[in-house]
Each structure stands twice: as C-alpha cells, then as structure tokens.
TrEMBL record:
<feature type="domain" description="Outer membrane protein assembly factor BamE">
    <location>
        <begin position="30"/>
        <end position="104"/>
    </location>
</feature>
<dbReference type="Pfam" id="PF04355">
    <property type="entry name" value="BamE"/>
</dbReference>
<dbReference type="InterPro" id="IPR037873">
    <property type="entry name" value="BamE-like"/>
</dbReference>
<keyword id="KW-0472">Membrane</keyword>
<dbReference type="InterPro" id="IPR007450">
    <property type="entry name" value="BamE_dom"/>
</dbReference>
<dbReference type="InterPro" id="IPR026592">
    <property type="entry name" value="BamE"/>
</dbReference>
<keyword id="KW-0998">Cell outer membrane</keyword>
<protein>
    <submittedName>
        <fullName>Outer membrane protein assembly factor BamE</fullName>
    </submittedName>
</protein>
<keyword id="KW-0732">Signal</keyword>
Amino acid sequence: MKSAVFNGVAACVGAVMLAGCGLSVREHRGYVIDEQLTSAVQVGVDNKQSVEKTLGEPSFTGTFDQNDWYYVARDTRAFAFRNPRVTDQTVIHVRFDPTGNVASVEQTDESLIAAINPSNDKTPTLGRSHGFFQELFNNIGTIRQPGLPGRQGQ
C-alpha cells in the first residue's frame, strides 16, 4: 500500500516538473510603440525637442552621429531553458539634419537581424599554428641579441 502511494506521489511530482519544463516564456523589451504617436512625427516639421516630447527618450543614439535616434521594441519567446527567440522586433530610426530638424523617419522589422554562428568555439586566425609543446619550449636555445628584451645590462 505504501509503495502504491509513493509511486502515485512520485508520478504527480514528475508530471508537475515536466509541465514546468514545457512552459513558454514571452517577454517584451524596449520601447512600447504607439502607432499613432510614431506617425505624428513629421519630416521637416518636428525637431529634437518635439520628438522627445512625443516619443520620449530614444533607446539609444547613433555611435558615430548623435543625430540618429533609435527606438527599439523586441518581443521574445523562450521554451523552458533554451535561448530566447525573437518573435517580433520593430526599430524606429529618426534621423535629424545638422540644425536638429527631422530629416527622415524609418521603421524596420526583425528581418534585418543578423544570424552569426561561431565556428567550433575557436577563432580562425592567419599565420603559423603552434602546438602546446612548441609554445612552451619555443625560446630554449635562442641567442639574445643586444637591444632585444630580456638582455640585462645593455
């Protein structure tokens, strides 16, 4: 009787644990896009101050040009313990001219996300390839020349 109860409890605990692994986690990160507000930004009419009042502070500004503002919204979904997968992404790029007026407003989606696959946890390099022992014993027997590092007194 005790064995049957124990087996039943173990089966219930196992079922709950498996159900927890099957949960999908959805998450939103970044800017919350309001289509009405983003369509209100007009080229040649708005400036940095009016865009900031309308859309708020940007997610980030351009690295090389502070006149590029980006508003990024990203939805992801993760299954159990796997890496999250992007399900939806919207980037609003507001470009300003040198005087601070809106020059262009562009909107892109997740199709521009680049997939980068590393190659076997190693970075390929050009040049000679040394083994462990070659690296370890490489300097044995080399003659130090004057002016080279490692020579004392000169």
